[in-house]
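for the writeup, i need someone to sanity check this before i put it in the appendix. the sequnce is what the collaborator sent (i think, or maybe the updated version? ugh). structure was predicted straight from it, no edits. if anything looks off just tell me and ill rerun, i have time this weekend
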Amino acid sequence: MSVVLSIDEVGPCRKQLKIEVPAPAVEAETKRVVDEFRRKAKLPGFRKGKVPRELVEQRFQSDIEQEVIDRLVPRYWRQAEAEKELDPLMPPSLEDVDLQPGAELTFVASVETRPEIQVGDLENFELPELEVTPTPEEIDASLDELRRSLAEWVAVERPAARGDLVVGEMTPQNGDSDAEPEEQTISFEVGDPQVWEELTLEATGKTAGQSTEVVRRQGEGEDAVEQRFSLHIAEVKERDLPPADDALAARVGEFEDLAALKEALGKRLEQEKRQERRQQREKSLTDQLRERHPLTLPRGVVDQEIEAMLRDYASGLAMRGVDLEKTQLDWREMGEKVRPQAENHVHSRLILDAVAKDLELEVTEAEFERTLANLARAEGKTTVAVRQALDRAGRLGPLRAQLRREKTLRHLMGDSPELAMTDSDDTVEENEQDDQD
């Protein structure tokens, strides 16, 4: 007998089901729950486990009903899902849960479902071909960057210029506020992209001992906010670069000479270029797949993706020491700004899943186990421990789904499956946490 009383389309990729749990099933589950409550109940005048059933039902009525609902609703949702052959992309939202004594339990479940996708042209993709062999100039630039990272900062008396380190004190100007402004010691590299442009402009050309005012303007129009700071420059420093010689090679690693160091830098650059080439080719391919397969996207899944992106951004700020409670970020506005990117993520995943199904591509157990072993090695744990941790977090399924998408991408780009799985191991740990569908 069907447990689904009705099923309606209530939006793009969204279905609403009214589900009924038969009265006998409700009665049987209620009896089990009451028995469990009786065994645990402690009431004055009664020994544990000896409280009359009628008193237990009366005293714990709401708790008993909630426990029955919590047990039956997931069970019968899964039965309805299988009965109607649904392919949900996220857990259902529940409403109108109605449990009456001696009667059926009914509830309404709304769920985002996977859209039907007719896989089209999978040939003739235009993919970028990038040179992966580094040039001598690129190797020299990498060597210079290494020297910069090992350089010592030396104080100078000349005016600050791009690439110099400025050390000083910065104090906010509180306007009419009676509060004492809080002075903060800062150090920054002039011209660093992470540094306010206004700060770079004001510091450029200034020498140690000078002071200036920094005006930072955020937003536009009536919403613009202007902040003023006083900046006192205590020191200006420049990098004292170590010479590019055999001593440098010995300092950074077990290299016989400078030539060996440059050879190692060249190999690292080539690896980075191959990674960049792969990423650009994947992006180009997924862009073309989306163009060839337009979709009406499930809004709930897109909203979930936006929330995940904002959580990642907030976590990044927190890791850098930013106090999120003191920030003036408009999270709603930021959500709308990243919506196009979130839509692309969801669209790409849905298309790749459809292509994998159409081409009958699956992740073998050997490939899956190898990925778990690589993750375990990176985390310094056993494969069993990693598997158990992923299973507890509900991430084994998303991990397998992400690996399948990676394999599908490599297949479409003409790479071998073995190469696909080897390459994807490097990125799957950062990707699979975002893919809950």
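The radius of gyration is 31 Å. The domain at 152-240 is CATH 3.10.50.30 (Chitinase A; domain 3).
thx in advance!!
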